[in-house]
Amino acid sequence: MTQGPPSALKADGARLVDGEFVFQAEDFRRIASLLHDEAGIALTESKATLVYSRLAKRLRSLGLESFRDYCALVAGADGADERQRMIAALTTNVTRFFREPHHFEHLKTVVLPPLLAIARRGGSVRIWSAGCSTGEEPFSIALTILSLAPEAADWDVRILATDIDVHVLAHAREGRYSVSNVLQVPGDLRERWFQREGDRYRVAEAARRMVVFNELNLMGEWPMRRSFQAIFCRNVVIYFEEATQARVFSRFVPLMAPGSFLYLGHSERMVGPAAERLESRGVTIYGLKGAGR
């Protein structure tokens, strides 16, 4: 999964990877095209081995004999569920609690104090975690809020958490994590906002109440009609070519409330028309121009 359009492929009939199943240039082209159309992700031929290794498992599970058969399945009218599984197999859901901690420090010290003062008086606060994976990011946002206002779950403070992968969303809704995952949470927050359940920890009910998990493809329709005071879209657009990144960033801008912030991943930078509307406010932190703070 890399930026940039797919490279020139070998001739049809050429075998890209030696293995159990024949994997030809035509198969790769069909998979790459479908992944780009469905999820905006651009694959180059350098990823052929990765594609083969991850999808060969699906062929075995489905009892298919060839990648040609698999391509026919995912492209067909009855292939919607397997397309979801294909996208999940070809994307990497690497995440952890409080990843890129400077973003949460900025959220805690700059963004939240005035917003929580408004919420305390009955106002609303909305934050969006776009590409939330298994939930560590939106729950880190919730824990940051609760560290400042333990009663915030009873206010109109909500975090929208979205992802294209329905399987990781199911995990996120449970809010259960291994001991090694939870050790990444600062000790005071871990003690107060997690409950031990056997060999796992579960996020406290107050934090779970603050987060709403929904399926959303960033390439599709966005049903949101209200603005957000902060948007986290971190380590998501690295899988998109630059033109697709630019389209996504441009769609964020109208959903940003005055004084709001957009957080990107450590290797991502603002591109396209949105760069004319947003300015850097820190390392991979962007705010609307002229909005102060």
Largest sheet: spatial strand order: 8-4-3-9-10-12-11
Bulk shape? globular
Q: What order do the SSEs take from the amino end to the carboxyl end, as H and E?
A: EEHHHHHEHEHEHHEEHEEHEEE
Helix content: 40-55%
| Measured distance between first and last alpha carbons | 36 Å
> CATH superfamily of the largest domain, called what?
Vaccinia Virus protein VP39
Radius of gyration: 21 Å
**Mean pLDDT across every amino acid position:** 91
Number of H- or I-type helical stretches: 11
The CATH topology assignment of the largest domain is Rossmann fold
* Second-tier CATH architecture of the largest domain: 3-Layer(aba) Sandwich
CATH class of the largest domain: Alpha Beta
Total number of β-strand segments?
Answer: 12
Question: Sheet bearing the most strands, described?
Answer: 7 strands, mixed
- What structural class do the secondary elements suggest? alpha/beta
Q: What number of domains? A: 2
Explain what the structure shows.
The chain is α/β, with parallel strands linked by helices and 293 residues long. It folds into two domains: 15-90, Chemotaxis Receptor Methyltransferase Cher, domain 1, CATH 1.10.155; 101-288, Rossmann fold, CATH 3.40.50. Helix content is 41%, strand content 20%. A seven-stranded mixed beta sheet has the order 8-4-3-9-10-12-11. A hairpin with a 2-residue loop joins strand 6 and strand 7. The longest helix is centred in the middle third of the chain and has 20 residues, at 101-120. The chain is globular, with a radius of gyration of 21 Å. It starts with 14 loop residues before the first strand and ends in a 5-residue tail after the last strand.
